[in-house]
Write a structure and sequence with these properties.
alpha/beta; Immunoglobulin-like; eight-stranded parallel beta sheet; 24 helices; 24 strands; globular
């Protein structure tokens, strides 16, 4: 194959020719990898002729359109420069532009293309086309506007429509962060125990925890992604592999807090039944969340509540009926499609319990626009509305949590988490199949903690398809996840610039970076941040180019810094004053060992048992490094005069991670100038096992482990109270 043409197509599609790993080594991207990624983008690349044809067609496609589908500019840009492409023979004819602002204001004028600045010329099927620049006389306020251009005299009646997005200069920064540094706990919601929940932490527990945070002086409460998962396969529980990021996991519903529960004798009688209560006690007391049992307990009651709602409210068209219909209207086509997906998945799962997701459905139902799907929606409207009802109730309960965080004056409030993508079998990919490279997975090159690289099993958005959609999916995702959040963490924020794509049936190390329209996505992020008054934290761990970190900083996005990783070149832990101001700091995260696990090398032992080290020499090197790190940690504390009484710098004399040592490490981080400090409840309670072990599925109980104490006593535990005192003294 002609390498020049092939490489041109790969470059045109944003595929990088090489990548650098965390150790600084350069890896050239192979032809096999490029072919796999191009196929994943839906391009025919079977031979040289098809590659050449694909390249020609992609270039011609750009020249044939009068306007790009979308333009993102900053509010400070003036004039707004719009690219117009047209045949040179039409440049002498009159055109009209019209701009409809989001707020309703309207502007228009006429122009002659031949009088505009010409930037480029190109040929399409032997005809010369020009690319010229139209300068608009105004910059609209930040928002989503529509620009239309049409030929008003002579020529071919050319016309085009563009979404014009005007973005603010920076993301939103809460007033409470401008002069203060805040702190608070990060929690895996499912892990919360309480004397009243149904075996899984729920949104009432989260609301209670907000009150606890306010009482102890915390200004922020972090939570795992709350995205909708797979209702018919509840054991598939990773919050980072959701069915949809637009909707919420209804397993987090507090069933007894739903208004229909207080009205419905049938539901209350079912729950009061001694056998049902015994079942709840059993699933509450388990060491791990049993998602299947939780679902089996909640689902029948939710079915009863929905039937009650239909009979007593929908049929009477009362106020609650109107509230539900309003929720449906606001959710629009996305909510309808989500409810339809859930109803279809339920139907096919009942026929064959092994079915999970639309790729396993009969072929005629895999297309959401098919006649079969439309007929199903018509004949199963009640089931579609059942799943919409669950979303309505979940939205109401999460909204109550968000409002409470504001009413109690938490400086930041609820800190939510946005997964990097969605599962290839879920609702979002079913509805938007054309937007995703479904034969490709997102991952990461090898690093110290994942020596084989990472395959996250999630499909990436295809960059040019995202542009063709005028960024609507990205906008909708941000809006849905910022709605009730005071802050939002963007998982793998470097994905706004580039994602590591791994072709089907390839190892993670055989992937390549694919580039995205970084500046555009940053601008939209800033716009949604300001609209929703939501702080943005960018998870920028690992190998992140300076240009990304600098861009994030200039946009007011907080960096994400972990104690484990903040080191000098010689491996020493960075001193507190070397941490950046514009950052969130924490000891660890869900994918890394807890403090106790780290101290005792529990993660290394588990990875050894599960065969996650590719070579014994790498395992041995990690053991040696960990021993050095224990000493480095104690020395770092000693240099800051923070070593607890009775503990020296010899790790052999400190075999356990004590509560005093946990407090000292968090005091170390509290002394930084970084705006936010988060602590994990697993660290405070000395849990050995980490939340999630990357590279494992069934071998490890990922996303299942509960906290050791009930919520009713958890926040009064002496370990929590002593850490809170330390953080209040240092940060207020």
């Amino acid at each position: 194959m002609n390498e020049n043409v092939f490489d041109q197509l790969a470059e045109f599609c944003g595929i990088g020719p090489e990548y650098h790993d965390i150790w600084g080594r350069t890896h050239q991207v192979s032809e096999k990898t490029k072919l796999g990624l191009l196929r994943g983008m839906g391009l025919p690349v079977d031979d040289e002729a098809s590659v050449r044809s694909a390249l020609v067609e992609k270039k011609a496609f750009l020249w044939r359109r009068l306007l790009d589908p979308v333009l993102v500019v900053r509010e400070t840009e003036s004039p707004v420069r719009v690219t117009v492409r047209l045949p040179e023979t039409d440049t002498g004819n009159g055109f009209e532009w019209s701009l409809r602002e989001e707020g309703g204001d309207y502007h228009s004028d006429t122009f002659l293309p031949k009088e505009l600045e010409v930037k480029h010329r190109g040929e399409v099927e032997g005809e010369t086309h020009v690319q010229c620049i139209l300068s608009l006389p105004m910059t609209p306020s930040p928002g989503y506007h529509q620009l239309e251009i049409r030929q008003v005299e002579g020529g071919r009646g050319l016309s085009g429509v563009m979404r014009l997005i005007v973005a603010p200069s920076t993301c939103y920064i809460p007033y409470g962060l401008k002069e203060r540094r805040v702190w608070g706990p990060a929690v895996q919601l499912y892990s919360l125990r309480s004397i009243r929940n149904w075996g899984i932490g729920d949104l009432t527990d989260l609301k209670t925890l907000v009150s606890c945070c306010a009482d102890m002086g915390a200004g922020i409460l972090g939570v795992n992604p709350l995205h909708a998962l797979f209702s018919e396969d509840p054991g598939y529980a990773s919050p980072y592999s959701p069915s949809s990021r637009l909707f919420i996991n209804h397993l987090y519903l507090d069933v007894e807090a739903i208004a229909d529960f207080s009205e419905c004798d049938e539901a209350r009688d079912m729950v009061k039944n001694p056998e049902f209560q015994a079942r709840l006690v059993s699933i509450r007391e388990g060491e791990f969340v049993d998602y299947t049992e939780v679902t089996a307990a909640k689902r029948p009651v939710l079915e009863i509540l929905y039937r009650h709602f239909r009979t007593h409210h929908l049929e009477h068209k009362d106020e609650r009926c109107r509230a539900f219909r309003s929720f449906q209207d606001q959710g629009g086509e996305e909510l309808h499609s989500y409810g339809l997906f859930e109803a279809l998945q339920e139907y096919f799962h009942q026929e064959a319990p092994g079915v999970r997701g639309w790729p396993a459905w009969p072929e005629t139902y895999r297309n959401p626009k098919s006649r079969a799907v439309a007929e199903f929606a018509s004949t199963h409207q009640g089931r579609v509305e059942f799943f919409q009802y669950l979303q309505w109730q979940t939205d109401l309960q999460l909204g109550a949590v968000g409002r409470q965080s504001m009413e109690l004056d938490l400086k930041v409030g609820l800190y939510e988490d946005l997964a990097v993508s969605v599962d290839s079998a879920g609702a979002e990919t079913w509805v938007h199949q054309d937007l995703y490279a479904l034969g490709v997975r997102i991952g990461a090159p090898p690093d110290d903690f994942n020596l084989n690289g990472q395959d996250w099993g999630l499909p990436p958005l295809i960059p040019d398809r995202l542009v063709e959609a005028a960024y609507a999916p990205f906008i909708a995702t941000l809006s849905a996840n910022m709605r009730y959040a005071g802050a939002l963490r963007i998982d793998h924020v470097m994905g706004l610039m580039r994602l590591f794509w791994v072709p089907q049936e390839s190892k993670p190390s055989e992937g390549a970076y694919v580039h995205y329209p970084f500046e555009d996505l940053l601008g939209i992020l800033a716009l949604e941040s300001q609209r929703n008054r939501c702080l943005v934290i960018g998870e920028d761990l690992g190998t992140v180019p300076d240009e990304v970190r600098n861009a994030l900083k200039s946009m007011g996005i907080l960096s994400y810094r972990l104690f484990y990783f903040e080191r000098e070149a010689d491996g020493k832990f960075k001193v507190p004053h070397d941490y950046p101001d514009q950052a969130l700091v924490a000891v660890s995260t869900h994918d890394l060992p807890t403090l106790s696990g780290y101290w005792r090398g529990r993660d290394l032992a588990v990875r050894t048992d599960l065969g996650l080290f590719p070579e014994d020499s790498l395992r041995e090197a990690q053991i040696v490094i960990r021993a050095q790190d224990r000493a480095r940690l104690l020395i770092a504390l000693e240099r800051q005069d923070m070593l607890p009484e009775g503990i020296g710098v010899d790790p052999a004399l400190a075999p356990e991670m004590t509560a005093e040592l946990v407090n000292a490490i968090h005091l170390y981080l509290a002394r930084t100038h970084s705006k936010i400090l988060m602590f994990q409840l697993e660290d405070v309670f000395g849990q050995l096992e980490q939340v999630n072990l990357p590279g494992t599925t069934e071998q490890y109980p990922n996303w299942r482990r509960k906290l050791p104490l009930d919520l009713e006593v958890l926040m009064e535990d002496p370990r929590i109270e002593s850490l809170a005192r330390v953080l209040r003294r240092e940060r207020g």
